[in-house]
Amino acid sequence: MAGERDTTIGANTPTGTDPAPGIHTAPGADTAPVRSSSTPLFQQQHPAVHESNFAGAGRFAPSPSGELHFGNLRTAVLAWAIARATGRAFYLRIEDIDSQRSRATFATRQIEDLVDLGIDVDEPIITQSARLAVYESALEYLREQDLVYPCFCSRKDISHAAEAPHLPPGAYPGTCRHLSPLEQQERFADFAAQHRKSAFRLKSDNSQVHLRDLLYGETSAFVDDLVLRRGGANEDFAYNLAVVIDDHYQGIDQVVRGVDLLDSAPRQAYLAGLLGVQVPQYVHVPLVVNGEGRRLSKRDGAVTLQQMRDSVGLAGVQRLLLDSLGFTELASLSDVPEVIDPKLLDTQSYTFTEEALAQAGRSMQAVRCPGER
Ligand SMILES: [Zn+2]
């Protein structure tokens, strides 16, 4: 595998001792990550939860920074239906890695919303804030491979830095990568005096990483020295690191999520390779947009489940979810796993309008029980 520099990451890439299975490295990248053969693989230190009853697992992983809106709910339905259609477990993960924006009350509400829609979730539900020790051990594992370095740059430092000539615009220019141990000590001391913490970055091989998405096909992104742990007051672990570790832990071999995260997939696949864990099958799905074509948000009116129920009832919301996915002939969301084929999904965004919601509500009025909200 190590010599296959033109290979694309496909679904269910086998895992093994290859440091980066199937990852295509762009010409010009000269330093493949090297793993010391004496260190046990991260995946051996932290085995996945074994779920013998299921053929793999899918997941929905919301951030509890607000209530789920129609777009989030639609993605949840797709992730659940595609997992169930293929005999997979379906897990929920509360991605409260951003300690500033996350609220436990939103996590509770999000779980209730999924239950109310009829999405059955397998136990256990995991919460990222309870797993910080595992992320720390993953960071330590990468550190032992000499794949981590401290970064003292502020956002401003990075935006003002001269672009590295061999890197694409926006890539971290590598400012702190080549600090000597003495320079690092001096910077750590400066930061300590100011009660600041450094970030930690991955020593990547700065390459274009390709993979295949089940719906969107071939995709690639430049993987630079991405942040693994943030600096500042909270020292939050980075989303990309936590996602890879948690997907491995939960036995997730199929990731269905919004297409806005398509660019993250090569980064996560690259990290998975370094950690020796399985790269899941990726199925990115189209977003829901507002009337102006922008991604739906809570600012776009009454779009949370509670607000929509108040307006058209739960059955009306379920009707619009079905209609938005093209399942106009189905009577219930519970029927979706029977008929869904993720390869045949429309890749166009779905435009949410209050009129479409009202129409879905009216179409359900005949079958709605009096008094039901
Ligand atoms: Zn830096």
Topology record:
Blueprint lengths: L41 H4 L11 E4 L9 H16 L3 E6 L9 H14 L4 E6 L4 H13 L3 E4 L3 H6 L20 H13 L5 E4 L4 E7 L3 E7 L3 E3 L9 H11 L4 E5 L5 H12 L5 E5 L2 E2 L15 H20 L11 H4 L10 E2 L2 H11 L9
Parallel strand pairs: 1-2, 2-3, 9-10, 11-12
Antiparallel strand pairs: 4-5, 5-8, 6-7
The structure holds zinc ion.
Overall shape: it is: elongated
User: What percentage of residues falls in helices of 4 or more residues?
Assistant: 25-40%
Radius of gyration: 22 Å
CATH superfamily of the largest domain: HUPs
CATH C-level class of the largest domain is Alpha Beta
Number of domains: 2
Give the total of beta strands: 12
Region (Disordered): 1-43
Domain Glutamyl/glutaminyl-tRNA synthetase class Ib catalytic: 59-307
Family: Belongs to the class-I aminoacyl-tRNA synthetase family.
GO molecular function, one term: glutamate-tRNA ligase activity
